[in-house]
Structure formats: structure tokens, C-alpha cells
Design goal:
258 residues; alpha/beta; eight-stranded mixed β-sheet; globular; binds zinc ion
Length: 258
């Protein structure tokens, strides 16, 4: 089964430090197994949600903020069976490379992609995506046989990003703020609406919620996006698994939960 599991859906210091939502990143089971942006608690959440960190093929780190890189080293130890086997990949944004110890970098193959560049993780083609106004962050586009999955990482809105977000089955946006809350360095729900209208993914998933977003209720905000754009939209939840072969059912199941 090709799937995406959210090991965390929190973003911003207050949510991460209180763990009101977890911060373990996103676990992808596609043609390869990848953990994207392992923030505080990634190993614990992976085990909590019955994932096998020693089966990972790669750890991806999109930028140098703590909630995206903090647990990269412990996950590298997990995927190398406690540093015994040299295997797997670390994909890391250029300015974040020095945040990972040399000892851990030497255990894996390191890829430092530039925005727009493509590379392979086993049989999975991946493209690094640009961001706008957020710590030289890179997003990622995963070209799976089961459908293209695009992850924005942290970014502000810019028109030049749209062409990278197009042709996605699932577009995951780090949407830290609700609508009517202006922020220059991140996406809020109003910007997610513009992206949904222009990029037209089959499914839009909002995640990486800050305190104001949680107080506004991400489920209501997701419904607002869907109402305005007609794009099927859900708010991610900690532990939510989306089955790529059946995302519609998953979404119906989730909407019944709320
Ligand atoms: Zn950030």
C-alpha cells in the first residue's frame, strides 16, 4: 500500500514546545520509505504509529528550523541499525547540512539538492522545489506510480511556486495560520486558497498548524478552502494515514470523525 502518515501536524514554537500537536514529520511509504522533516519526537511518534525506523530508506530535511531537523540524527541511527550498516540517504537543504554531525553524515549517502533539481531514492523520482521568504527552505515533489505527492515545506506564497505545485494528486501545504491572519514568512489559509485555485491538486492537505490555527479549528478552515475552491481539502491529524490508492475513502472517513 502506498501511503502517507502524519507523525505530527504541529508547527511554530508554541505548538511544538507544548506538543499540542506532535512534530514528528511525514512518513511516506512509496517506492521507497522516507521520513520528511523529523522534528522533536520523530522517533517516538514513528514507533507509536507502528512504523519501523530501521526500514527507512531516507531522511529528508527541508530547512534549518528545529521543528524540521531536530531528530534527523537519531533517525539516521535507526535506519543504519544503530550505525552498524552504512545504508540509506540523507537529503538535506544546503544551509542545513552543517546542522547534522559529520559522524551521522558519514553513515549515509548525502544529497544536497538545489531547487528544481531531480534525484532518485531507489525507484522513486523526487524533485526539490523552491520556497519563498523562508530560510532557503526546499519543498519536495515525489513522482510515485500511485500518484504525485507534493510537499511545500515552510514558505510564503509566491506565484513562481505554482508551476511546481501543479499536477499533484496530493498537495501538502504547511499552513501555519488561519484566514485573516497576515504573516509574511509562512502560508495562511487565504494563501492556501490561492494555491488551491491555481495549482488544482486532486486533494489538498493542510498541516503544520500554529496555535492560532488550532484555535480557529483546522477542520473548519479546511472546509472553508474546499467551499471556496472546490478542491477536496482536509486538515491533517496526528497519526492520520492517507492510502494513496484510496484517498477519497480516507477523506470521507476523516470527515465523519469530526
Ligand atoms: Zn520553518
Amino acid at each position: 500500500m502506498a501511503s502517507i502518515t502524519f507523525l505530527g501536524t504541529g508547527g511554530g514554537r508554541y505548538v511544538v514546545l507544548s506538543q499540542r500537536r506532535y512534530s514528528g514529520g511525514i512518513w511516506l511509504e512509496l517506492e521507497s520509505r522516507i521520513l520528511v522533516d523529523p522534528g522533536p519526537g520523530a522517533l517516538i511518534r514513528a514507533l507509536q504509529y507502528k512504523k519501523k525506523p530501521n526500514k527507512l530508506d531516507a531522511v529528508f530535511v527541508s530547512h534549518r528550523h528545529l521543528d524540521h531537523y531536530s531528530d534527523a540524527e537519531v533517525l539516521i541511527e535507526a535506519l543504519t541499525e544503530g550505525t552498524v550498516k552504512k545504508r540509506g540517504f540523507l537529503v538535506v537543504e544546503e544551509n542545513t547540512l552543517s546542522y547534522i554531525s559529520e559522524y551521522h553524515r558519514d553513515l549515509v549517502e548525502v544529497i544536497v539538492p538545489r531547487a528544481g533539481q531531480e534525484f532518485m531514492i531507489k525507484d522513486l523520482r523526487v524533485q526539490a522545489l523552491p520556497s519563498y521568504n523562508h530560510a532557503s527552505s526546499v519543498g519536495f515533489k515525489f513522482f510515485s506510480e500511485s500518484g504525485t505527492v507534493t510537499y511545500s515545506s515552510d514558505t510564503d506564497y509566491d506565484d513562481k511556486l505554482i508551476r511546481y505545485y501543479k499536477n499533484s494528486m496530493i498537495l501538502i501545504l504547511n499552513c501555519i495560520f488561519p484566514s485573516n491572519r497576515e504573516i509574511k514568512t509562512h502560508l495562511n489559509v487565504d494563501k492556501a486558497v490561492i494555491i488551491a485555485q491555481k495549482a488544482r491538486p486532486d486533494y489538498l492537505v493542510l498541516t503544520h498548524f500554529g496555535m492560532q490555527m488550532l484555535n480557529a479549528n483546522p477542520v473548519d478552515e479546511a472546509k472553508r478552502v474546499e467551499r471556496i475552491t472546490g478542491v477536496k481539502t482536509i486538515a491533517a491529524e496526528d497519526g492520520l494515514t492517507l492510502d494513496l490508492d484510496n484517498p477519497v475513502k480516507q477523506m470521507i472517513k476523516q470527515s465523519k470523525l469530526v
